[in-house]
């Protein structure tokens, strides 16, 4: 596969257009997600800029429930069209949609990438593809301090329970990290693309109480 820059094919857009697209992505849009193992269903597709994640939400008993999340740093390609196994799996259900109403997101860190197959209105499809390409490219090239901040926010939200309550120990894990401790973690456990297990947070990241 080609390099990330080529695959994302990010076309420079003006700052004002950028902001408009990002606001729309944050607000979210209702679209059709095409699954591989079950029939297509409608979901809310949005981006959480704080954590640099694509979120897919489903309505369950009148509440929005997170179905899945994709790290924008893991996005390798965003493509318009129907060329995916999910679309092939449901030809009758997706035949009525034009290619320019469908888009695919390929992501992951392994050799075999995962894919997300979606259907939206033509104008929304174009906006979503442009915005995700731009955000993915920005996330991949983000400066080191922003990577650390994004990781902290993801960990913070992932430990938040349904009532929005955190334990004292969980909250302590998200105080500012000393640069030396972070570098020690990277040397021992890998790159910043990996989330550290909770048992390692205590050793490397907790400030003195």
TrEMBL record:
It comes from the Eukaryota. InterPro entries: PH-like_dom_sf, PI-PLC_fam. GO terms for biological process: phosphatidylinositol metabolic process; phosphatidylinositol-mediated signaling; positive regulation of epithelial cell migration; release of sequestered calcium ion into cytosol. GO terms for cellular component: ruffle membrane. GO terms for molecular function: phosphatidylinositol-4,5-bisphosphate phospholipase C activity. This is Uncharacterized protein. It comes from Larinioides sclopetarius.
């Amino acid at each position: 596969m080609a390099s990330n820059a080529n695959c994302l094919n990010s076309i420079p857009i003006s700052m004002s257009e950028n902001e408009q697209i990002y606001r729309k992505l944050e607000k979210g849009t209702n679209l059709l997600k095409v699954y591989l193992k079950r029939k297509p269903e409608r979901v809310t597709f949005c981006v959480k800029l704080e954590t640099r994640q694509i979120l897919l939400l489903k309505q369950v008993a009148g509440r929005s429930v997170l179905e899945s999340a994709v790290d924008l740093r893991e996005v390798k390609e965003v493509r318009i069209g129907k060329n995916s196994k999910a679309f092939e799996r449901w030809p009758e259900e997706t035949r009525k949609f034009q290619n320019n109403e469908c888009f695919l997101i390929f992501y992951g860190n392994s050799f075999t990438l995962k894919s997300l197959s979606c259907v939206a209105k033509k104008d929304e499809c174009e906006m979503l593809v442009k915005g995700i390409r731009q955000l993915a490219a920005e996330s991949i090239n983000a400066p080191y301090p922003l990577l650390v901040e994004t990781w902290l926010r993801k960990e913070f939200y992932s430990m938040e329970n349904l009532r929005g309550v955190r334990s004292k120990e969980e909250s302590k894990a998200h105080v500012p990290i000393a640069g030396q401790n972070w570098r020690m973690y990277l040397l021992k456990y890998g790159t910043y693309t990996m989330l550290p297990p909770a048992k390692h947070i205590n050793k490397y990241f907790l400030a003195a109480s």
